[in-house]
Amino acid sequence: MASLVGSRVERKEDTRFLQGKGRYTADINIANQTYAVFVRSPHARAKIKSVDTSKALKSSGVVGVLTGKEIAEDKIGGLIAGWAIRSEDGSEMKVPANPPLAKDVANFVGEPIAVVFAETLDEAKEGAEKVKVDYKVLKAVVDPAEAMKSDAIHDGVDKNLCYDWLLGDRKAVDEAFAKADKIIKVDLINNRLVPNAMEPRACVVDYNTASEEITLYTTSQNPHLSRLVMSAFGGVAPENKLRVVAPDVGGGFGSKINVYNEEIVCSWASKKIERPIKWVAERTESFLTDTHGRDHVTHAELAVTNDGKFLGFKNETIANLGAYARVFGTVTPTYLFGPCATGVYVIPAAYSNVKAVYTNTAPVDAYRGAGRPEATYTIERLVEKAAMELGMDKTEIRMKNFPTQFPFKQTLVHTVDSGDYVAGLEKAKQMADYAGFEARRKKSEANGKLRGIGVSSYFEACGIAPSAAVMSLGCGVGLWESAEVRFNPTGQISVFTGAHSHGQSHDTTFAQIAADEMGVPIENIDIVHGDTDKGTFGMGTYGSRSLTVGGIAIVNACKKIIAKGKRVAAKMLEVNEDEIEFKDGEFVALKSNKKKTIGEVAFACYLPGQRDEMKSPIPEGDEPGLIESAFYDPPNFSFPAGSHICEVEIDPDTGNVKVEKYTAVDDFGRIVNPMIVEGQVHGGIAQGIGQALHENTQYDETGQLMTASYMDYTMPRADNFPEFNLGFTCTHATSNPLGVKGCGEAGAIASPPTVMNAVIDALGGQEISMPATAEKVWKACKSIKKSNAKAA
Amino acid sequence: MKSFNYHAPKDVKDASKLASSSSAFLAGGMTTIPSMKLGLASYKDVIDIKNIKKLSGIKVSGKTVTVGATTKHVEVATSKDVKKAIPALAKLAGNIGDAQVRNRGTIGGSISNNDPSACYPSACMALNAVIHTNKRKIDAEKFFTGMFETALKSGELVEAVEFQIPEKADYQKHPNPASRYAIIGVFVAKHKKDVNVAVTGAKSCVYIDKDLSKKLSSNFSVSAIEGTEVKSSGMNSDMHASAEYRANLVSLYAKKAVEAC
Q1: Tally of CA atoms within 13 A in the half-sphere of A630 that contains its CB
Q2: Are residues A680 and A766 in the same domain?
Q3: Within 10 A of A274 (CB to CB), how many other CB atoms are there?
Q4: pLDDT tens sequence across A357-376
């Protein structure tokens, strides 16, 4: 039987998605449901003097109005930060309370203050307009670079500083810098991004008055984790009385990891008003309240020798957490960022120092790549600048500092199990026709255009798991994954996974894996996820972990099925277990060549006993049924890596930047489905080009979000991209039995510096910040013209 | 969105009878509906004019092209008659918004709304258009009076736009990367006697750049306006583009348009 792993199996989920049959949270309606509309703070920072709900309560169709006062009285807990980060001085991080409905003070535009439930959505909106909130507007803190000098937003958080974290050895770095021939310096802003999942957040809550069970349908990347958080920290309901279902979810990119205010409030309120509740975010609410990504201000330095050897690296970053610390908010700019900031290079001494600050802006959390795009941007801008200042070829300087021995002990934290960075960059050079660039540059110049080429080599630590590692770094839970394989009596198989698919195609890739393991047709396998009542438990999907952690749990559960199947088949075929071989879905008695298919064995497991022809004995010590589960906790992170090369052409008259060529060579270890992996890389690169050239989240000085719609926030579109030229190298991960590394975030990690390096190359080295919009580039072109004129 | 009464009259007379100070005419709804959804506008009566047959369609006479108010952008963009008579107008219509907008949005809606960064007003100005309403005929230069302001009175409805066919014309737009409205758009039309350079997006309302128009009237070539400095004073400055950048684009795209003529 041909292996399905490695082949371009068409997506099982496309049948429903392409026919508009996906079932998203907003598609779910429950008889007698009410509609929720939230009253949100129009101010970035304000004291809430009073909330008057009397008029709203009298408004037509309004069923109930609840405020921060009631939720506090009911002792419902707030939103949480999932990772505890310690400052360099050993002190605990400072985390303010984040109640689901603000009671005393509002800290960002869009923060929920009250909620109105009504018979119709229009009536709920009308009611919400009648809730009168008396605010005392306070001066907002908006700029992260100024936050430490501004008024403290939260009581007990001096200088708005959550932590001042250090990883690495300052003394060793100082010594390395003292030996350097040259110090390369960059000042960077990693622009804030709105994740913009296609499906806005939503929830539908159904409270069963008889069983006292709450069912929450929600747009989550991790329903079990949501249940855990709402139960343990929110106190909404005990875990056994709370069912969380994340049905089809239209994209997350990290923004649907958190349990949000609205889910907690609606779950709590449904029990209170004894009515089902439906809430669907409008796009503006998504812009205002989905967790945002990035937002770093960084100064970094690289110590080099004249022949291009890296000696030391330092990174001083201010990370904007927004108004509150959320689930991955505190770890994203620390352990997901700092260790990766030394990149794919041997750098003997390094440190990353991060000061995380609170501001009156939407909370910042993980967004595709989470910390690693910021890290890669930092080191890859430095490396490119070093090549330029040393007059070296930009690929040569990288090659010179790549590790060639694996496992590679990276400077700050990680031990990278496998990789071949030289092969990746060589392949990228070849695919991008790197050697032919100068000719293309001349051709562009002849047409009055500026052409630039940029390179970026990256690695990332993903497959976010090893519980032992993440818990030692401050994670509040272990990040293993579970799977259960249920072989039904008639031969179909349900595979339960704790991972969640919101665009990752698990229905297909996980089925490929299980089909190969058990030698059954892929059509017989259904992947089940997203319902706490169906699957055992799970940590969900983020950090490119589904395959590397969840996929292995499936493999292990399948192996247990085969192991039991062998015992049963041996009994059925009347041979010893060690005389049975399992191959292509059949248990074969080696000597007699008699066989039982896995389907026959499964059937036998459910009908133990003997009658007439039927002979299906269960071996002594075994139980009936054929259901096995596995919890998998990997020994290490996984480390995808690669090199990307981009070519841009700039029109100096308009400043328009056109991405002419984009080549990506990635090492994701073993690839389960090349078509799906290519799709993941395309999406990641698109988001990265979006960050580099288009997307920017802008608040004004009072904390109003100026880019709160697609009229003002530039989402990249298909016509902003060239055809992507993708290649792969493959060194198997040694940390898991499939040899897989994960591919979801790589595109977004590698592409921003690749594009920016190309733009800056075209501008002759002139620094420019992301996004490199037409006007910024036009201004840079003008200043180059001026300085050229002066020089002449 | 607040509740409203929906009307779909079959002729203009009935439509105008229904109109009041708290009503809105609805054509493609590309601005009206989002404004209502966002709560920025609310009306007691919404008068849908899409069913009024005489308001839709394209007619070409010897000297003019007349486009009915509810004619969709896609119809203008793909009309063989328009492509032949004023290809620049078809090109302009074909680059408005995206396919969905072009399949719903109408010329009457666009000019009645007079968004400062809409494309059509520049064509009206450069092509000496006459706006036919249910009450009168208005010259384009008197029709567009300010930001989202027109000469239309309450209950007055645009029926058609009559464009003068030029000798040559072209429209060049620098789209806002987010909305794809014009950061600036320049419509250059060479008529028998003179040249009009109409600019949208740059200021609070569409206007004729008199300096560029004059120079091109006496010598219709790129060299005639080479080096002409377009002043940035009075131009919009926002997070998408500074006045200085807009001024640069106006002069650049005027040249591009002349070149393309």
Answers
A1: 18
A2: yes
A3: 12
A4: 999 999 999 999 999 999 99
Judge if A542 and A690 occupy the same domain: no
Are A549 and A589 contained in the same domain? yes
A694 and A677, same domain (yes or no): yes
A746-762 helix and A372-390 helix, angle to the nearest 10 degrees: 30
**Whole-angstrom distance between the N-terminal and C-terminal Cα of chain A?**
71
From A55's Cα to the closest Cα of chain B, the distance in A is 18
C-alpha dist (Å) from residue A144 to A364, A372, A644, A775, B13: 12, 20, 31, 24, 60
- Is there a domain that residue B109 lies in? no
Residue B99 contacts A where some CB pair is shorter than 8 Å: no
Kindly give the pairing relationship between strand B130-133 and strand B158-164: antiparallel
The long-range contacts involving A586-592, CB below 8 angstroms and separated by at least 24 positions, are A586/A519
Chain B residue with CA closest to A123: the answer is: B2
The count of other CB atoms within 10 Å of the CB of residue A528 is 15
**CB–CB of A607/A489 below 8 Å?**
yes
**Shortest CB distance from A712 goes to which of B1, B178, B252?**
B178
State whether A646 and A719 are in the same domain.
yes
Q: What is the mean pLDDT of residues A697-725?
A: 97
Short-list A237, A215, A217, CA closest to A228: A237
Residue A281 is assigned to a structural domain of this protein = no
Record the pTM.
0.96
- Chain B residues 114-173 within an 8 A CB cutoff of chain A: none
* Final residue in a domain of this structure, among A570, A605, A632: A632
Instruction: Find the Cα–Cα–Cα–Cα dihedral A549, A554, A557, A561, rounded to 10°.
Output: -160
Chain B residue whose CA is closest to A282? B38
In this structure, is residue B223 part of a structural domain? Answer: yes
- Displacement of CA A427 from its chain's centroid (Å): 28
Q: What's the CATH code of the domain at A541?
A: 3.30.365.10
By Cβ distance, the residue of A711, A713, A775 closest to B241 is: A775
The pLDDT confidence band at residue A610, using thresholds 50, 70 and 90, is confident
What is the reported pLDDT for B2?
83
Confidence of residue A791 (pLDDT cuts 50, 70, 90): confident
The residue-averaged pLDDT of A682-702 equals: 98
- To the nearest whole Å, the CA of A733 is away from the closest chain B CA by 41
CATH code, domain carrying B26: 3.30.43.10
Give the count of domains, chain B.
2
Residue A174 in any domain: the answer is no
Same domain? For A617 and A721 the reply is no
pLDDT in tens, A254-285: 999 999 999 999 999 999 999 999 999 999 99
B255 touches chain A (CB under 8 A): no
Gap between the Cα atoms of B91 and B168, Å rounded: 13
Count: domains in chain A = 2
Range of the domain at A552: 481-632
Q: Write the pLDDT tens digit of every residue in B26-56.
A: 999 999 999 998 888 999 999 999 999 999 9
Per-residue pLDDT reduced to its tens digit, A110-125? 999 999 999 999 999 9
Using CB atoms, pick whichever of B38, B239, B241 lies closest to residue A706.
B239
pLDDT digits (tens, 9 = 90+) for A490-511: 999 999 999 999 999 999 999 9
Q: Which of A121, A654, A695, A776 to mutate to test the interface with B (most CBs of B within 10 A)?
A: A654
Residue A643 lies in a domain: yes
Of A75-79, A351-355, A605-609, B185-189, the poorest mean pLDDT is in A605-609
Residue B248: inside a domain: yes
A104 in a domain, yes or no?
A: no
Residues A512 and A598 in one domain: yes
Domain's final residue, options A584, A607, A632: A632
| Segments forming the whole domain that contains residue B196 | 168-260
Please choose, from the candidates A638, A648, A637, A639, the residue with its C-alpha nearest in 3D space to the C-alpha of residue A751: A648
